[in-house]
Amino acid sequence: xxxxxxxxxxxxxxxxxxxxxxxxxxxxxxxxxxxxxxxxxxxxxxxxxxxxxxxxxxxxxxxxxxxxxxxxxxxxxxxxxxxxxxxxxxxxxxxxxxxxxxxxxxxxxxxxxxxxxxxxxxxxxxxxxxxxxxxxxxxxxxxxxxxx
Length: 148
Known about the structure:
It is built from six helices and five strands. It is of the alpha+beta class. The chain is elongated. The termini are far apart. Residues 97-104 have low confidence and may be disordered.
């Protein structure tokens, strides 16, 4: 569990902005996309540990609400404190801590001239990794039905 906690906390320390909640499935997708061997239960265990330390609440998924960790403290500061960069962790303002969902990842629109008369736009995460780009390229290569 220490390895998964380190991955998660290092990731939080690198965020540019705080989030009020982090979805378990989003974090699982992000870590696996980076090539890490992580399970959903690993992430839940770390979130429950963070809850016991007073940094927020783990909320299991119900109905249309996904499993997530609702932060009451700055997730960036928690990550930095774990790595020794910060000494204190601020609690989030009451209104900010009560928001229910995380912000979606920052996306950048990329225009591409596919044909002389056709331009397409792809929206990709600002922090797209080489591994994700490679997987996306392989996916696009698999789309055509002909070899022309």
